[in-house]
Amino acid sequence: MKRAGLLALLVAVLVVAFVLAKSGNNNDNNSTSTTSAKSGPVVIHVVDGKPQGGVQKITVKKGDPVKFTVQSDVSDEIHVHGYNFHKDVEKGGSVSFNFPAKIEGIFDIELESRGEQIASLQVNQ
Known about the structure:
Radius of gyration: 20 Å
Low-confidence stretches: 9-37
Distance between the termini: 54 Å
CATH class: Mainly Beta
Number of helices: 1
Number of strands: 10
Helix content: 10-25%
């Protein structure tokens, strides 16, 4: 009888561990949203000089297009590090980027003057 109880407890622990492992980052309170190129262009909303919903994660495959738009309530320069692309966004305006993902790696996208990261671009093989 003791053995059956221990076995049942072990099975319950394994089931809970499996459920927690499968849920991954979906239940933690980090401030990053992930979007892949296949789900369409990413729109990053900047409110009070910060990315609404946290730093956005844009993931694409090398050779695919990188497409995103920044809508901002502050004026600043949007800088895509690594690719060294710069565009100004006006207060209450938006600016769009569309370029091929030629360089593999992880690159910050930020409000340059504020030093505020708004997105992370990840280009995979």
